[in-house]
Amino acid sequence: MHELALAANILDIVCQSAKENDLERVTGIWVASGELMGVVFDALEFGFEIASSNTVAAGAKLNFRELPAIIRCDACGNRYLWKTHGYTCPRCSHLGGEMIQGKEFYIDYIQGDRKEDEKNGSD
Q1: Cβ distance 19 to 115 under 8 Å?
Q2: Distance between CA atoms of 79 and 42, rounded to whole angstroms?
Q3: Are 23 and 56 in contact (CB under 8 A)?
Q4: Going by C-beta distance under 8 Å and a sequence separation of 6 or more, which residues neighbour residue 103?
Q5: C-alpha to C-alpha distance for 98 and 77, rounded to whole angstroms
Q6: Residue 55: left if φ>0, alpha if ψ -120 to 50, beta else—which one?
Q7: What is the pTM of this model?
Q8: pLDDT in tens, 22-43
Q9: Apex 46 CA angle, 33 and 69, nearest 5
Q10: How far is 114 from 110, CA to CA, in rounded Å?
Q11: Which residues contact 121 (CB under 8 A, 6 or more apart)?
Q12: SS3 88
């Protein structure tokens, strides 16, 4: 299950980002994944929940956005959905093209609560 490895990688990045940005707690994480990655979101969410316990990201909501696979036609430059048309351009019927979206996986956004400024805290 590659979702567990993805969850661990997300957690590493989120914890490092939280440290660099003085976040006391991470409350939300937005992940974008290309449809060709084959990520099962429920499995990713479950893996992240387990991996993040006892960390700054414990209880954080994992939000998922799937990016459609898009091809750019080699002949006419048309961009179209791979899932709908395969490798045949709907504009010029050329077979073949470059996959320009659909294989990516990245953290789009991290939301959290900053640590209280100890200098301006209670007396």
Answers
A1: no
A2: 30
A3: yes
A4: 34, 36, 37, 69
A5: 10
A6: beta
A7: 0.84
A8: 999 999 999 999 999 999 999 9
A9: 15
A10: 12
A11: none
A12: strand
